[in-house]
């Protein structure tokens, strides 16, 4: 079956089946002078057989936006499995005198790369992570630490942000970096009040994952729109707020934690002290090595199954999760916790299902970089493969449904699409994309990808045109 699919898809660009309805819609799109300069890459294939039923410039490499998330998520499901779980451990490193309750050493958090630790998406699964650890320490009889709270040496490298990301994105929640120890989706909120027009805005409070970060506030109260900017860098202890927030109103600025391992260490240290556990040393971002064999795993927190994390990744389009999955692929498959190793694993997987090297320029795993370039044909190859794989159910269910869930709530709202379309969306400046599956009136499942780049019209016009093509195929195939 696999050989047949690869053969059909290899020949797809030469023997596409063009249905007249779709061609007419495509011609009308191309004839629209308001869309002059827009580049398209469309591809539609039978999800079971791999037969291409309609395409337009399907081999053209274009910016994919968040459709890129389908690549690390599909490969991780295939290679690690839907039931894979990350672990994060709390350890005692050193000599522990249980009678006196004194640890001559450090309390150490050992990260396993869990991107969802303490996430708001999984509140019932994790509960109060820090509270759980403090209780474990008390249950073990720890009353004094003659060392400090620390993070263990990282299983990853120390480059948390992909090379393709823009500096201006790193301060925002959607530009949060990837670490071996992540917490609260690596973000925290800053609560700001805009005063009278032209006056300085005021920071009312911040969530406590920003401990140790000095925030410089240049915000002005002006207008009715939030035009603020947030600047910080990985491992920095500084953040800057610039621009303006609406006058006479309150806003919440969601920003990235510049050093999540250090933030979690600081939070645990404070909670231990509040619970009556004495700690001699102060918390610091410096990592520590375990002291030979003198360490004990006191508490291990396992993540939800990978399939659940991937469902959130694709439903909510969480950049940090996608990048964490990519880096972890490098760690698990190649023994190297780097983005480049993760990309190499993805590239090898794509090669194995018949994709060509020229069909992709992959600079990140999330689509935040505008310099990614992939083709609709390659993406459809991947979708067909996943539809026929042992991970099909987990992968397809990770995609949000049109007009119903996740990032698809506002798309494919026509009654004809009801219950038929699941897809990953993608949106960045002048780039719009969809990739997923839909079911035709005849009951066939179609794998599809639509890319549009370089447009100057409202994105809604682009998506309306994409939906027109999908509608024709639903009705006529």
Plain-language structure description:
- The protein has 477 residues and is α/β, with parallel strands linked by helices.
- It folds into 2 domains: 2-83 and 306-476, DD-peptidase/beta-lactamase superfamily (Beta-lactamase, 3-Layer(aba) Sandwich), CATH 3.40.710.10; 86-304, no CATH class.
- Helix content is 29%, strand content 26%.
- The chain contains 12 helices and 22 strands.
- Strands 4, 5, 6, 7, 15, 16 and 17 form a 7-stranded mixed β-sheet that branches.
- α2 packs antiparallel against α12 (459-476), α5 packs across α6 (260-274) and α8 (319-334) packs across α9.
- The radius of gyration is 25 Å and the shape is globular.
- The model is unreliable at 1-18 (pLDDT under 50).
Overview features:
disordered N terminus, Beta-lactamase, 2 domains, alpha/beta, 7-stranded mixed sheet, 5-stranded antiparallel sheet, 22 strands, 477 residues, 12 helices
In short:
It is built from 12 helices and 22 strands. It has 477 residues and is an alpha/beta fold.
Lay out the secondary structure.
Elements: H1 2-10, H2 20-31, E1 39-46, E2 52-56, E3 61-62, H3 70-79, E4 87-97, E5 102-110, H4 123-126, H5 129-139, E6 144-145, E7 149-152, E8 187-194, E9 202-206, E10 214-217, E11 220-221, E12 227-231, E13 238-245, E14 249-256, H6 260-274, E15 278-279, E16 287-288, E17 295-302, H7 306-316, H8 319-334, H9 339-352, E18 360-361, E19 373-375, H10 376-387, H11 392-397, E20 421-428, E21 431-439, E22 445-453, H12 459-476
Parallel strand pairs: 5-6, 5-7, 6-15, 7-16, 10-13, 11-13
Antiparallel strand pairs: 1-2, 1-22, 3-19, 4-5, 4-17, 8-9, 8-14, 12-13, 18-19, 20-21, 21-22
């Amino acid at each position: 079956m696999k050989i047949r699919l690869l053969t059909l898809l290899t020949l797809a660009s030469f023997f596409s089946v063009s249905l007249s309805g779709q061609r007419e819609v495509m011609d009308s799109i191309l004839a629209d002078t308001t869309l002059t300069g827009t580049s398209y890459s469309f591809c539609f294939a039978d999800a079971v057989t791999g037969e291409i039923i309609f395409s337009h410039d399907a081999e053209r490499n274009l910016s994919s936006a968040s459709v890129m998330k389908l690549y690390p998520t599909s490969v991780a499901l295939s290679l690690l499995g839907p039931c894979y779980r990350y672990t994060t451990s709390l350890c005692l490193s050193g000599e522990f005198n249980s009678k006196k309750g004194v640890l001559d050493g450090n309390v150490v958090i050992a990260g396993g790369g869990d991107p969802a630790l303490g996430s708001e998406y999984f509140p019932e699964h994790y509960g109060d992570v820090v509270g759980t650890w403090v209780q474990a320490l008390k249950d073990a009889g720890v009353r004094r630490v003659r060392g400090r709270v620390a993070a263990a040496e990282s299983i990853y490298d120390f480059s948390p942000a992909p090379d393709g990301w823009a500096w201006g994105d790193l301060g925002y929640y959607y530009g949060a970096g990837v670490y071996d120890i992540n917490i609260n989706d690596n973000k925290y909120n800053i609560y700001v009040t805009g005063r009278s027009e032209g006056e300085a805005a005021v920071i009312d409070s911040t969530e406590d994952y920003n401990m140790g970060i000095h925030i410089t506030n240049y915000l002005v109260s002006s207008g009715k729109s939030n035009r603020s900017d947030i600047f910080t860098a990985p491992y920095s202890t500084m953040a800057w707020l610039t621009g303006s927030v609406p006058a006479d109103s309150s806003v919440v600025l969601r920003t990235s934690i510049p050093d999540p391992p250090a933030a979690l260490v600081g939070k645990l240290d404070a909670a231990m002290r509040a619970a009556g556990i004495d700690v001699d040393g102060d918390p610091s971002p410096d990592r520590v090595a375990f002291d030979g064999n003198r360490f004990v795993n006191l508490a291990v927190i396992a993540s939800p199954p990978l399939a659940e994390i991937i469902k959130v990744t694709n439903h909510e389009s969480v950049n940090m999760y996608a990048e964490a999955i990519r880096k972890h692929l490098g760690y698990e498959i190649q023994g190297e916790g780097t983005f480049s190793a993760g990309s190499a694993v993805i590239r090898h997987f794509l090669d194995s299902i018949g994709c060509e090297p020229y069909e992709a320029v992959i600079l990140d795993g999330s689509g935040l970089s505008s310099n990614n370039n992939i083709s609709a044909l390659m993406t459809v190859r991947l979708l067909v493969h996943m539809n026929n794989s042992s991970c099909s159910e987990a992968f397809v269910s990770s995609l949000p449904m049109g007009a119903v869930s996740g990032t698809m709530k506002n798309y494919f709202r026509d009654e004809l699409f009801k219950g038929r379309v699941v897809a990953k969306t993608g949106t960045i400046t002048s780039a719009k994309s969809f990739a997923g599956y839909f079911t035709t009136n005849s009951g066939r499942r179609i794998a599809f990808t639509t890319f549009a780049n370089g447009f100057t019209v409202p994105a809604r016009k682009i998506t309306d045109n994409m939906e027109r093509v999908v509608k024709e195929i639903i009705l006529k195939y």
